TrEMBL record:
Gene3D superfamilies: LCCL-like domain, von Willebrand factor, type A domain. Residues 199-216 have a biased composition (Low complexity). Residues 150-177, 199-259 are annotated as: Disordered. Pfam families: LCCL, VWA. It is found in: Secreted, Extracellular space, Extracellular matrix. Keywords: Disulfide bond, Extracellular matrix, Glycoprotein, Neurogenesis, Repeat, Secreted, Signal. Residues 308-493, 510-683 form the VWFA domain. This is Vitrin.
Length: 693
């Protein structure tokens, strides 16, 4: 009996060992069969914004064609998360327009994002945004695991558009089923159940197995028991015929949270939600920020291109509907590329035919989106092609304060002409240029050899544009090539340093008054001279970037009353002139000219015209010839105004050639005011007679 018992024990032990060895071998075989999953790079579309992706760092593959301006990018190098991920990659130079893999890393939000044009993409400016990202080449870091499936912050995952299967299964409501409070152990059980590859029966309307888990609620439904969390039903759909393994939780109010395929429901995921937060396209935004955080950022415009722009578009009958649409498309592309906004460029449109008509002025639309919508609604007027009449209309009516014209912003007109104008443009354009308007011409399909006899004004474009150096003229042989003018046009109109016609006779000079304060003038007459200086100053546009004013008073000695950089507004300058005190003494005009050259004009800006206006009432005690010649050689345009006992021959020596345009004599101080209009006219005539090449 004892032997039998021992034999049975040995058999049991033997069977146990066999089963143990079989299990070990089986586990080894299973381990061999389980291969390490290969990392697959998620693909996204060009329109996917970084803010929609929750992952802090990830590698993605972008398709070709993301250089298109419809994919908005905000910033340079560091981009606002409202930007297109792939558009930013092209802008940064990491990708070209053929697409490819990139590494994206989220960083902190910035107080401002500067727009720029790079690699065929015009990025926009943005005042601030709560989250940013940078784009790098797709070189994975050692030891860093990148997600094969991205986690999105919206129930409509953009990944679905790029080929990922993230369809949501929404369980139909079942009568009599109520959600029960959940415990931590139940939540853990659900986590394990989802991760375990167990086949579950399909739920039926009569009997369904439900398990409650917490979920993020929509704003305004805060649970007392779990603060943000409430309860909802969760049902596996893995065994449902045709069902996708993606999951979705639905609350009674209809707010849904969807998980991408392959993601596990876990406590780690729940911990990523923050109380008081709601889902928005750009990421998680605290509830208290909702009143100030806009879903669609409104750009203030590109401050590096602050211009007031008017497009004159050809609406003549001969252009036809198809070419008119091509013309509108160019305007829409320009509106997009310029980054329209109150701190940057503003744009209006005038259509011409027989007569011009304004579609919208500078202040009608203050962002690119609204402007493009308005351009799309423009209809063709028909008629002739009266360009000269349209330019006159814009000069007189368009650039006014009531229409949104801004002081300090260059005025630019871009004229599109199909063929040739049916009226003359030279005189209208000259008046526009003298008003400070920079005229650009885009000519399409010029006159053929047998049509030139019908052209009203040969070489009309060169007679119209601001300068004839080629900078202001663009020509295309065919309407189908009009889109090629977009980039050079945008670059040129934004190059404010080269907008030469913005510089007028009234806003582009450093003017130094050299005032005789000798004893023969007297206190009363000196105040009259100061009033004359005031009347002249009032005619100019005064600012740091426009005309600047300085003043020197002299007797035997010289005194700098104020320099060009002392005052930068017209009221301040006029008050400073009033405060100049009468000095009294002798008359050393030659020394005064030398002093003005050294103390005033030596500090003049290189791009300013230098004007010296000297007022004296007598013959100088010293020589004026050498100082006057020095002034002329240094490019200082000198006006000499003599009163009473001033020597006419000295005035002509001091004045710039021709003396008849730059020297004036008046017998009494009280008659000085009569010469103000003539002096201003001569200054402007001389300015506008400069060569335009």
């Amino acid at each position: 009996m004892r032997t039998v018992v021992l034999t049975m024990k040995a058999s049991v032990i033997e069977m146990f060992l066999v089963l143990l060895l079989t299990g070990v071998h089986s586990n080894k075989e299973t381990a061999k069969k389980i291969k390490r999953p290969k990392f697959t790079v998620p693909q996204i579309n060009c329109d996917v914004k970084a803010g929609k992706i929750i992952n802090p760092e990830f590698i993605v593959k972008c398709p070709a064609g993301c250089q298109d301006p419809k994919y908005h990018v905000y910033g340079t190098d560091v981009y606002a998360s409202y930007s297109s991920v792939c558009g930013a990659a092209v802008h940064s130079g990491v990708l070209d327009n053929s697409g490819g893999k990139i590494l994206v890393r989220k960083v902190a939000g910035q107080s401002g994002y500067k727009g720029s044009y790079s690699n065929g993409v015009q990025s926009l400016s943005l005042p601030r945004w709560r989250e940013s990202f940078i784009v790098l080449e797709s070189k994975p870091k050692k030891g860093v695991t990148y997600p094969s499936a991205l986690t999105y912050s919206s129930s409509k995952s953009p990944a679905a558009q790029a080929g990922e299967t993230t369809k949501a299964y929404q369980r139909p409501p079942i009568p009599g089923t109520t959600a029960q409070p959940v415990t931590l152990m139940q939540l853990l059980a659900v986590t394990v159940a989802v991760a375990t590859p167990t086949t579950l029966p399909r739920p039926s309307p009569s009997a369904a197995s439900t398990t409650s888990i917490p979920r993020p609620q929509s704003v305004g439904h805060r649970s007392q028991e779990m603060d943000l969390w409430s309860t909802a039903t969760y049902t596996s759909s893995q065994n449902r015929p045709g069902a996708d393994p993606g999951t979705q939780r639905q609350d009674p109010s209809g707010a849904a949270f969807q998980k991408p395929v392959g993601a596990d429901v876990s406590l780690g995921e729940m911990d990523s939600w923050k109380p008081g937060s709601v889902l928005l396209d750009e990421g998680l935004v605290p509830k208290e920020d909702l009143s100030t955080q806009s879903l669609e950022p409104v750009s203030l415009g590109d401050p590096n291109c602050k211009i007031d722009l008017s497009f004159l578009i050809d609406g003549s009958t001969s252009i036809g509907k198809r070419r008119f649409r091509i013309q509108k498309q160019l305007l829409a592309d320009v509106a997009q590329a310029l980054d329209i906004g109150p701190a940057g460029p503003l744009m209006g449109v005038v259509q011409y035919g027989d007569n011009p008509a304004t579609h919208f002025n500078l202040k009608t639309h203050t962002n690119s989106r609204d402007l493009k919508t308005a351009i799309e609604k423009i209809t063709q007027r028909g008629g002739l092609s009266n360009v000269g009449r349209a330019i006159s209309f814009v000069t007189k009516n368009f650039f006014s304060k009531a229409n949104g014209n801004r002081s300090g912003a260059p005025n630019v007109v871009v004229v599109l002409v199909d063929g040739w104008p049916t009226d003359k443009v030279e005189e209208a354009s000259r008046l526009a240029r003298e008003s400070g308007i920079n005229i650009f011409f885009i000519t399409i399909e010029g006159a053929a050899e047998n049509e030139k006899q019908y052209v009203v004004e040969p070489n009309f474009a060169n007679k119209a544009v601001c300068r004839t150096n080629g900078f202001y003229s663009l020509h295309v042989q065919s309407w189908f090539g009009l889109h090629k003018t977009l980039q050079p046009l945008v670059k040129r109109v934004c190059d404010t340093d080269r907008l030469a016609c913005s510089k007028t006779c009234l806003n582009s000079a450093d003017i130094g008054f050299v005032i005789d304060g000798s004893s023969s003038v007297g206190t009363g007459n000196f105040r009259t001279v100061l009033q004359f200086v005031t009347n002249l100053t009032k005619e100019f546009e005064i600012s740091d970037t426009d005309t600047r004013i300085g003043a020197v008073q002299y007797t035997y000695e010289q005194r700098l009353e104020f320099g060009f950089d002392k005052y930068s507004s017209k009221p301040d300058i006029l008050n400073a002139i009033k405060r100049v005190g009468y000095w009294s003494g002798g008359t050393s005009t030659g020394a005064a000219i030398n002093f003005a050259l050294e103390q005033l004009f030596k500090k003049s800006k290189p791009n300013k015209r230098k004007l010296m206006i000297l007022i004296t009432d007598g013959r100088s005690y010293d020589d004026v010839r050498i100082p006057a010649m020095a002034a002329h050689l240094k490019g200082v345009i000198t006006y000499a105004i003599g009163v009473a006992w001033a020597a006419q021959e000295e005035l002509e020596v001091i004045a710039t050639h021709p003396a008849r345009d730059h020297s004036f004599f008046v017998d009494e101080f009280d008659n000085l005011y009569q010469y103000v209009p003539r002096i201003i006219q001569n200054i402007c005539t001389e300015f506008n007679s400069q060569p335009r090449n």
